[in-house]
Amino acid sequence: MNSPKIVYCHCAYAQVVPRETKEAVLKRLCDSGVEFEATSDLCELSARKDPVLLKIASMGEVKIAACFPRAVKWLFSAAGTELDPAKVQVINMRTESSEAACSMLMDPQIVPNWPIGKASPKPELVEN
């Protein structure tokens, strides 16, 4: 069985994740030798409808270190990219300690927590 892919979001623009937490998680990922995809900010990728989001969606099982699962789901949806709910675990660095976040990221088992239900923004909020 292959381990899930790991995506790390540095939340560079919103700055909603405690700096100490994201720096500790990034350092642990770098020191561990595991492969991971790092992004400066998923919000920015979503706003630009960046193809990186499609790449993430095509990874199969994926763990995303970012913020709230519902927010990450909305970001992918707003960019027109959907992920398989059974293959996504979002690690919330806003609420988890760096130790807990790293433990979840390094665990080869995935615990899907992708919110089920509508994620599309209201039509009046979408730019044409």
Helix-strand layout with pairing:
Elements: E1 5-9, H1 19-32, E2 37-39, H2 42-47, H3 52-57, E3 62-66, H4 69-78, E4 88-92, H5 98-106
Parallel strand pairs: 1-2, 1-3, 3-4
Helix pairs in contact: 1-5
Can you tell me about this structure?
The chain is an alpha/beta fold and 128 residues long. The chain has one domain: Rossmann fold. The protein is 35% helix and 14% strand. The chain contains 5 helices and 4 strands. Strand 1 (5-9), helix 1 and strand 2 form a beta-alpha-beta unit. The longest helix is centred in the first third of the chain and has 14 residues, at 19-32. The termini are far apart.
What labels describe this entry?
single chain, 128 residues, alpha/beta, Rossmann fold, four-stranded parallel sheet, 4 strands
Concise synopsis of the structure shown:
The chain is α/β, with parallel strands linked by helices and 128 residues long. Helix content is 35%, strand content 14%. A four-stranded parallel sheet has the order 2-1-3-4, with helices on one face.
Main-sheet strand order equals 2-1-3-4
The SSE string, one letter per element, is EHEHHEHEH
Poorly predicted runs = 122-128
The strand count comes to 4
The count of domains is: 1
Overall spatial form: globular
CATH class: Alpha Beta
In DSSP terms, counting alpha (H) and pi (I) runs of 4 or more, how many helices?
5
Helix content: 25-40%
Question: What is the fold named in CATH at topology level?
Answer: Rossmann fold
Based on the structure, what is the oligomeric state of the protein chains? single chain
Rg, Cα atoms, Å: 14 Å
Percent range for β-strand residues: 5-15%
Mean pLDDT, to the nearest integer, reads: 90
> Which structural category fits the helices and strands?
alpha/beta
The largest β sheet comes out as: 4 strands, parallel
Q: Could you tell me how far the N terminus lies from the C terminus, measured between alpha carbons in angstroms?
A: 42 Å
What is the CATH architecture assignment? Answer: 3-Layer(aba) Sandwich
